[in-house]
Amino acid sequence: MTDTKGADRLDDLEDRLDRPISPTYPLRDNEIVGVWRRRSVEALHRLAHKGVLDRKDAHGRPLHEHLFAIADGPILAAFEQSPGRALLLGEVVRNVDAPGRITQGLKGTCAATCVEIHLAEREPAEYARLCAGLVRPEGRVEMRSGDVLLRDEDVLVHDEHEFRRSPMSRLFQVACMEYAYPELDYRNAEDGQFEGAKNTGTGLSFGAFERLLNAITGQRWDTVSDGHAKLAALFARFGVDTKRVPDLRRDALQIIDRTTAAGETLFATLEVPRVRVPVRRAAAPSNGQSLGQAAHKIRVLGLDRPRGLVIYDDPMDPQVSWFEGVRTRVEDKYGRCTMAIEDFEKLVVELSYRPDLWQVDGEDNPLSTRTPASTKVPASTKAPASSPGPSQARRA
User: Fold this and answer.
1) In sequence order, what are the residues at sequence separation of 6 or more whose Cβ sits closer than 8 angstroms to the Cβ of residue 21?
2) C-beta of residue 271 within 8 angstroms of C-beta of residue 349
3) Which pLDDT score, from 0 to 100, does residue 2 have?
4) Residues contacting 320, CB < 8 A, separation 6+
5) How is the chain split into domains, by residue range?
6) Which of 31, 163, 243, 291 has the most CB atoms lying inside 10 A of its own CB?
7) If we measure between CA atoms, which residue out of 352, 343, 109, 345 comes closest to residue 225?
8) Residues 1 and 54: beta-carbon distance below 8 Å
9) What does the pLDDT average to over 95-123?
10) pLDDT band, very low/low/confident/very high, at 308 (cuts 50, 70, 90)
């Protein structure tokens, strides 16, 4: 952005970031206001230099229009005070500049966070459009699928379990959790999906995750799980040819290689027998205490074959290695991690990928698990909070 009009827009956005910051919603990492504002302006200039501010959304509108909508357009009255326009604007700018900084905090929204990171990285203008829609008074915005994403919180009160999650990411992730299970009510304070008064647990089954991912991206995604082998064996008993059914154990690394070679990422669910608190300053329990079994969604970025490593983005943004008995390494503060391939193969139970980038023998999977973006996922696919349940109901 070097033209006069573009330079004026950049100056105007800088002015919007110079507005007062509300003291009622803390800045992440305990940044002081001056440091937060300087880093936000630096991020804005990087986006301008790379031409990102002129990138178009699904409707052909540039990203900078959505930034001005947050800064100057109508927003929910409560958000004027907390967290405030400047904070919402700056956090969107910084999320687009460095999508890896997007985090789930200490909430069970790893799947929704992976989708948020993916969108901010791949389609920044579309991400900004959805964010701008969620802060408007009506709190509703149409996704690529035509379905509507709805804001679920009108008052943002910070608590320690938000940890490093920004208020914009909070709004986005909570709306995604609501959309993924239309028949349930996600409550952020309890971090649970409720059926009436019953807390059914947190996280998303892969049916709910595909529903969300298809709607946000407007693309088809399929998931291969550890349940495919059992399903294929059952079908084989009745004479069904299952040679084209993806096998997670056999095909996972090939799917990752082909997908990442095409410049795309994937999503994997890891089932870890025991985990520790992933941050040095956590609400509870104390650091180092084991938390038991966990299913966790990550974004798979690629394979480093010479070193025998899987490269992935952990939406928890862990400060320490938190999978017990697993060789992982935290590579940066934004959750880029590595894990031994052999450990990944033991832990992975689901892998979501674009089938146009990988198919068995070049053909569609006859036992595809895909969920059309407009299809509601029945409540029966949900696992009870006390148990992971069958593969389809496993939540991450």
Assistant:
1) 27, 33, 36, 37, 84, 86, 87
2) yes
3) 52
4) 276, 278, 279, 280, 287, 330
5) 4-199, 222-369
6) 163
7) 352
8) yes
9) 97
10) very high
